[in-house]
Automatic annotation (TrEMBL):
Gene3D superfamilies from the UniProt entry: Phosphorylase Kinase, domain 1, Transferase(Phosphotransferase) domain 1
Name by which UniProt lists this protein: non-specific serine/threonine protein kinase
Keywords recorded for this protein, A-Z: ATP-binding, Hydrolase, Kinase, Nucleotide-binding, Nucleus, Phosphoprotein, Serine/threonine-protein kinase, Transferase, tRNA processing
GO molecular-function term, one example from the UniProt record: ATP binding
Domain Protein kinase residues, every copy: 13-234
High-level lineage: Eukaryota, Metazoa, Chordata, Craniata, Vertebrata
Source species of the chain: Lates calcarifer
Function, in words: Component of the EKC/KEOPS complex that is required for the formation of a threonylcarbamoyl group on adenosine at position 37 (t(6)A37) in tRNAs that read codons beginning with adenine. The complex is probably involved in the transfer of the threonylcarbamoyl moiety of threonylcarbamoyl-AMP (TC-AMP) to the N6 group of A37. TP53RK has ATPase activity in the context of the EKC/KEOPS complex and likely plays a supporting role to the catalytic subunit OSGEP. Atypical protein kinase that phosphorylates 'Ser-15' of p53/TP53 protein and may therefore participate in its activation.
Enzyme class: transferase
NCBIfam families: arch_bud32
EC number assigned by the record: 2.7.11.1
GO terms, biological process: tRNA processing; tRNA threonylcarbamoyladenosine metabolic process
InterPro entries, A to Z: Bud32 (IPR022495), Kinase-like_dom_sf (IPR011009), Prot_kinase_dom (IPR000719), Tyr_kinase_AS (IPR008266)
Binding partners and assembly: Component of the EKC/KEOPS complex composed of at least GON7, TP53RK, TPRKB, OSGEP and LAGE3; the whole complex dimerizes.
Similarity field: Belongs to the protein kinase superfamily. BUD32 family.
Length: 234
């Protein structure tokens, strides 16, 4: 059947399974050339001026794809980008089949008191973030929901996969990396109760794995202090 130019993706999405409706994007499960895929669609926001909205949406789509490719080039796990449609602002990504978010994994592992398993996970998180920052990728929205655990085969370790790079950018500044870690620290400690020691393990592993960690950790300390001062004032 003949199809008008620009309608193929919307038609595909109308048949896809909606996984998550967020404030900025809808996430679907679909197939791309027979492979299980995740489609992230950034839809227009009516409260924004249409020209500004189009610009912001385009920029986030570009940033997401660019950072994923940069990570993958450096051997850092992130989903394969199958296809990008800049008309409907859709990114087609490899689905990490059978994965769970680190958030869900920590929550269930905490309940069953498997401390050793959590420590290994914190270590893996420190390592992958160190490698990402050494490539000068700043994630911009680090949370435990934006990391997936791909289950390994029996004797294999499960593998961490970074996702959701819409707010990412490239920077070599230790300050930007320190703020990235600060955002994660805030999210981590508020999502997962009593995990201060676990987050310290993550930072220790980050420090051991990154070539440039000392300047970053120094900045993290500064940013924390600034945050504390601000909360004392207001
Ligand atoms: N490649 C993938 N494979 C499997 N599951 C995924 C994949 N990408 C996303 N998901 C699932 O969909 C959820 C939402 O995806 P994502 O974090 O990219 O969108 P979002 O949080 O809505 O984005 P944004 O913060 O830009 O609004 C993830 O937490 C994860 O559960
Ligand atoms: Mg997310």
């Amino acid at each position: 059947m003949a199809q008008e130019k620009g309608t193929a993706v919307p038609v595909l999405l109308s048949k896809a399974e909606l996984l998550k409706q967020g404030a900025e994007a809808r996430v679907y499960r679909a197939e791309f050339l027979g492979k299980p895929a995740i489609v992230k669609e950034r839809f227009p926001k009516r409260y924004r001026h249409p020209v500004l909205d189009e610009k912001l949406t385009h920029r986030r789509t570009v940033q997401e794809v660019r950072s994923i490719l940069r990570c993958r080039k450096a051997g850092i796990s992130a989903p394969v980008v199958y296809f990008v449609d800049y008309t409907s602002h859709c990114i087609f990504l490899e689905e990490i089949v059978g994965s769970s978010t680190v958030r869900d994994h920590i929550a269930s592992t905490q309940q069953s008191c498997k401390d050793q398993e959590l420590e290994r996970l914190a270590q893996q998180m420190g390592q992958i973030l160190a490698r990402m920052h050494d490539e000068d990728v700043i994630h911009g929205d680090l949370t435990t929901s934006n990391m997936l655990l791909r289950r390994g085969t029996e004797d294999e370790e499960s593998d961490l996969v970074l996702i959701d790079f819409g707010l990412s950018y490239i920077s070599a500044l230790p300050e930007d990396k320190g703020v990235d870690l600060y955002v994660l620290e805030k999210a981590f400690l508020s999502t997962h109760p009593n995990t201060e020691a676990l987050f310290q393990k993550l930072l220790k592993s980050y420090t051991a794995s990154s070539k440039k960690s000392s300047a970053v950790i120094k900045k993290l300390d500064e940013v924390r202090l600034r945050g504390r001062k601000r909360s004392m004032v207001g």
